[in-house]
Design goal:
Elements: E1 2-6, H1 9-26, E2 29-33, H2 40-53, E3 60-64, E4 66-68, H3 79-86, E5 98-99, H4 108-121, E6 127-130, E7 152-155, H5 158-164, E8 177-180, H6 183-186, E9 191-196, H7 202-210, E10 228-233, H8 243-250
Parallel strand pairs: 1-10, 2-3, 2-6, 3-5, 6-9, 9-10
Antiparallel strand pairs: 4-8, 7-8
């Protein structure tokens, strides 16, 4: 893992946008997009680079990480709507280039299998953006998820429902079930970009980066991936034991090497 400790959330957003821009400017690319508050700064930075710097997503496809079961695509909290409003509608993705899971599918298992097949048919994900939950979940792979899991239906924990209630009128409106890329699916992306900001994420980051590989912290499985970049601000890094090592090793990495 590359652990990059940055001063502020804005610095995290800029560094993440640098990696994504570098990939997109190489040519046709596939991005894995996450929702939630964590990647918002990165999306705002990419929108600005599209508007002011000519960064084009016209040759880019995108796959969403997850979706609520039971929410139609037009619901304001469906991740189809959220990613459109927060990012994709403000840049130049082709109309059919942004793919998401169908939360209204009558056969969720078939929908999940079809989604994994679609990712494979696109050539796989080049960069997957990830956030991390306070309990160490990535996507909606809650604690005790199979570390080899594929895209599937999952039941949300009470903690995750409480964390996401701020996006709904009440916790009772948060769906109980989701479709999510599995940890095995996520790990097939060529580059994983894990972002975390704020003290509330510090314990989860420490467990994911320095703790044992364990289903209790789903993000710890990323330790097995050959190319993971963890971008954290000072607050999210506050419980890492080896901060000096990360600052010395990754803080001096030549820019030409990218991430």
């Amino acid at each position: 893992m590359e652990i990059v400790i940055l001063p502020t959330p804005a610095d995290v957003a800029r560094k993440a946008a640098d990696a994504i821009e570098q990939q997109v400017r190489r040519g046709p690319s596939v991005l894995g997009l996450a929702t939630g508050s964590t990647p918002l700064g990165t999306y705002e930075e990419l929108i600005a680079r599209h508007r002011d710097g000519g960064l084009s997503f016209g040759q880019t496809q995108a796959f969403l990480l997850d979706e609520y079961v039971g929410l139609p695509t037009e619901h304001p909290q469906s991740y189809h709507s959220v990613i459109r409003d927060e990012f994709t509608a403000s840049v130049d993705f082709a109309a059919d280039a942004v793919h998401g899971l169908n939360g209204m599918a009558t056969d969720p298992e078939a929908e999940a299998a079809q989604y994994d097949a679609a990712i494979a048919a696109a050539g796989g994900v080049d960069i997957q953006i990830l956030g991390i939950g306070t309990d160490g979940h990535v996507g909606f792979n809650e604690p005790m998820s199979s570390l080899a899991s594929r895209t599937r239906i999952k039941t949300l924990t009470q903690q995750t429902k409480e964390d996401n209630a701020r996006f709904f009128d009440s916790i009772d409106d948060v769906p109980d079930h989701v479709l999510t890329q599995g940890l095995g699916t996520i790990r097939q992306a060529r580059h994983l970009l894990l972002l975390a900001m704020g003290e509330s994420k510090a314990e989860a980051i420490a467990a994911a980066v320095e703790g044992p590989l364990a289903a209790l912290c789903p993000a710890s499985v990323l330790q097995l991936h050959p190319h993971v970049t963890v971008l954290v601000d000072e607050a999210a890094a506050s419980k890492l034991t080896h901060q000096d090592y990360y600052r010395d090793t990754f803080g001096r990495k030549p820019e030409w090497q990218g991430l």
